[in-house]
Amino acid sequence: MFIVYKKVKSLTEVTKKIGDKILKGERLTKEDGLALYDCDDLAWLGSMADLVRYRISGDYVYYNVNRHINLTNICTSRCSFCAFGCDEDSQQAYEMNQERVLEVVKQATADPDLSGLHIVSGLHPTWPFEYYVNIIRAIKTNFPTLHLKGFTGVEITHFAKISGKSIRQVLQTLMDAGLEALPGGGAEILSDRIRQQLCPNKATASEWLEVAQTAHDLGIKTNASMLYGHIETIEERIDHLLTLRKLQDKTGGFQTFICFPFHPEHTEMANMVQRTSVWDDLKTMAISRLMLDNFRNIKAYWVMLTLPIAQLALGFGANDIDGTIQEEKIMHAAGAKSSTSLSKETLIATIREAGRTPVECDCNFNIVKVF
Ligand code: V47
């Protein structure tokens, strides 16, 4: 009883100090971030994050009408947290050629509200860089009004390696072909220790950051993410957030931040790690909002969180609920329990029920309509 009392008392002192800083709009330190993770008062954490969310972006909650396309699941990286990537000779392996991609995009444009595409794929062992450039050019030529967000920092690094071009040249070539933004995947945890263990065959932390910085220099906005709930420590989560905050101070080019709670099903780690708790998910959402004071948007990715928890997360610092998606494969390969697609009406109702204003936007957060 005494131990519990002592813990609650000392936490109250620490959180009071941090709460004062938040109310004054002061930047939180690494120590503050660690102390916030120690705090079990989830309601207080939520209210602090909600306050910061309101200050930064008011009551608008963004969603978009989009379509995910994964060109191939064949992947040379084979990260131990991923259930989507596979070898070329696997029964699940698939490849989309340009004709098929254009067919899928045409079908998607049957929805007059479709604003853009989200393209993330495996690191294919033999496709040349030109293959991807031609696909982007073909989509843009045939569907010029669609916004194209594609290729994570990991894919861009792969393209640089296979083409012998610099990261800047790769990005410039894709931009000239019609690419407008980069998704936030591939950041995982920006720590060499973690990457060596989980994903040694792809971009290092500094390569991922170099892609983001170069894209921002060229005027391409990118997203950022954190994959948590595997082998990382709480300190590594906070360091990850601080690394992103530092780069954002420099460039201002990150548009939104996404927390990916690790889904272990069908991955190499399925027997080692359990799915994160809702408690951890909401805590991480709130702490991300509080630490990333220079990010305008924090995404509650309904695919990973499920729709009810994503709705709840709108009270824990999030102001972006992603999109209609139409076909989600990466997270569902790893056992995501949400549906693979949602209607625009469902997203609008979800945001409204949370007491917020639904705002439809494109992949660069340009407002299409305020409801
Ligand atoms: O880098 C893969 C994550 C990312 C698992 O920018 C997993 O708006 C949890 O980039 N459990 C790729 N997470 C997806 C991606 C993305 C998705 C949605 C929105 C945006 C955006 C970007 O997916 C990977 C990795 O971090 N991931 N496997 C898994 N088992």
TrEMBL record:
Gene: mqnE
EC numbers, comma separated: 2.5.1.120
Enzyme kind, highest EC tier: transferase
Family: Belongs to the radical SAM superfamily. MqnE family.
Keyword Transferase listed: yes
A Pfam family: Radical_SAM
Domain of life of the native organism: Bacteria
Keyword flag Disulfide bond: no
Annotated ranges, domain Radical SAM core: 61-296
Function: Radical SAM enzyme that catalyzes the addition of the adenosyl radical to the double bond of 3-[(1-carboxyvinyl)oxy]benzoate, leading to aminodeoxyfutalosine (AFL), a key intermediate in the formation of menaquinone (MK, vitamin K2) from chorismate.
Pathway named in the protein's UniProt entry: Quinol/quinone metabolism; menaquinone biosynthesis
Taxonomy of the source species: Bacteria, Bacillati, Bacillota, Negativicutes, Selenomonadales
Gene3D superfamilies in alphabetical order: Aldolase class I
InterPro entries: Aldolase_TIM (IPR013785), CofH/MnqC-like_C (IPR045567), Elp3/MiaA/NifB-like_rSAM (IPR006638), F420 (IPR034405), FO_synthase_su2 (IPR020050), MqnE (IPR022432), rSAM (IPR007197), rSAM_sf (IPR058240)
Annotated source species: Propionispira arboris
Protein name: Aminodeoxyfutalosine synthase
Membrane spanning residue stretches: none
Protein residues bound to S-adenosyl-L-methionine: F81, E188
PANTHER family membership: AMINODEOXYFUTALOSINE SYNTHASE (PTHR43076:SF7), FO SYNTHASE (COFH) (PTHR43076)
Catalysed reaction equations from the record: 3-[(1-carboxyvinyl)-oxy]benzoate + S-adenosyl-L-methionine + H2O = 6-amino-6-deoxyfutalosine + hydrogencarbonate + L-methionine + H(+)
Cofactor note: Binds 1 [4Fe-4S] cluster. The cluster is coordinated with 3 cysteines and an exchangeable S-adenosyl-L-methionine.
